[in-house]
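ok so for the tutorial part 2 we go from a plain amino acid sequence to predicted structure tokens. step 1 is just haveing the sequence, like this:
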Amino acid sequence: MKIAAPLLAILSLASGAHAQQAIVFSTESYPPFSYQEPGGNYRGAGIDQVDMIMQDAGTPYTLEIMPWARAIAMAETQSMHCVFAAARTPEREPRFKWVVPLFVDRNILVRHAGSKVAATTLEEAKQYTVGTHRADYTEGLLKSSGFRKIDLSANVDTTLRKLLQDRIDMMPMSEGVYQKLKADGTPIEKVILFTEQHLGIACHPNVPDDLIARMQAGLDRLIKDGIQTAILKRYGIGEPQ
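step 2 — the prediction. this is what the tokens look like for a chain of 241 residues:
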């Protein structure tokens, strides 16, 4: 499957969909969940699921990859916007309408392979500088957990680059992303479990309830029929361990 480059509407939907208002989706570059290929096509385990959900719902949509802080702000403030894959945290719960889970994820703290960074508890981890990207839910979790040395970047790629250059000591990362990066030869190592959560689609409150219900039903079918698991495996994402 190929998803076209920024803001290309999906037109091959159910009969009559052209008369409906399109949903605007935003996401971040976070391989293998969402990323842009050199040719401009959008791919990823999250993008594939969203495409199938919206085709099943019979509703047109557009999609753009952008920095996470902007992506989630658009879904919170602009009519008929959704963002994925957002962690469904208690703080975010009332701000959006939810379709979950695109993935049940564990988030771990990782280090540059071979570094002397070592921690067996979160308390021990707090002595180190931990990097993440702005407006990601892990920023709030790090602060609420008592981490004092937090380095913020514009996106996850910049944070990873800082880690590999030893400019930060650790970073939180989806275990699924960690598995894929390790398989690709990225020199990182797991330090400790940070948190566990559902990742899903978060929509502006004015997105109609009946559409949210159709989207959830579509996702439920992907899960029940084993399609979600097959998509995740296709992108090298295994079951949380």
